[in-house]
Amino acid sequence: xxxxxxxxxxxxxxxxxxxxxxxxxxxxxxxxxxxxxxxxxxxxxxxxxxxxxxxxxxxxxxxxxxxxxxxxxxxxxxxxxxxxxxxxxxxxxxxxxxxxxxxxxxxxxxxxxxxxxxxxxxxxxxxxxxxxxxxxxxxxxxxxxxxxxxxxxxxxxxxxxxxxxxxxxxxxxxxxxxxxxxxxxxxxxxxxxxxxxxxxxxxxxxxxxxxxxxxxxxxxxxxxxxxxxxxxxxxxxxxxxxxxxxxxxxxxxxxxxxxxxxxxxxxxxxxxxxxxxxxxxxxxxxxxxxxxxxxxxxxxxx
Length: 302
What we know:
By secondary structure, the chain is mainly alpha-helical.
């Protein structure tokens, strides 16, 4: 009985390292990018196989990247977050490293099943994720941009099902880059709190993202009316906790705001999905939110 319990605890620890709730938000990136590609319009067929490969790819890439985040932070977490799987001894450093390598490899291999460009993007995302884990997160300027590039690349990975589309919509990645930069900047205060100007910068970036979502209405094939209800939901979910973080930049309030920001990535992606593929598709992407929220009640998101 003790052996069975010990085995379960060990597997559970490695699952915690992957942060499943966050992986669901990465799925939303892929689905939003897929919508922007206009795949079904161009191909005149209902073939979900490429989408499934890309969902598997982002599962590996995001999961691997987040595992390596804990691998590189093992010594720091031993002081600041001793409850995490590695410093607590529930997961070994070597085991976590092997898991991270396997996940990143699966991510690249799955992307290669879709297109050569998808494979190249997957390698780039994996590289930027490792760069962030090892060096980027320690730099107050490069770090947020580095993390944003990973998520922006993930969005483009979804659109890479039709490589020619990326030439027209590469700039969509900027929305994710700015948004993730805002969350990353604010997350630096999760342990010791944040300075007021840091919280203000993060809030300002969120406002820029909302303006960008509305500005996409200038594109001929983006239905801003369909996207508008999603924009409202997104603004309510993110602005309120970020404003609270400005008013009271304590570690607890910042963690609340960061968690809301991470989970609201799905709302952001559903906005893009609705704008490019209609309200129904947007709602399908949004349906990932309760799944992610439920998982966030069990697994940490930061």
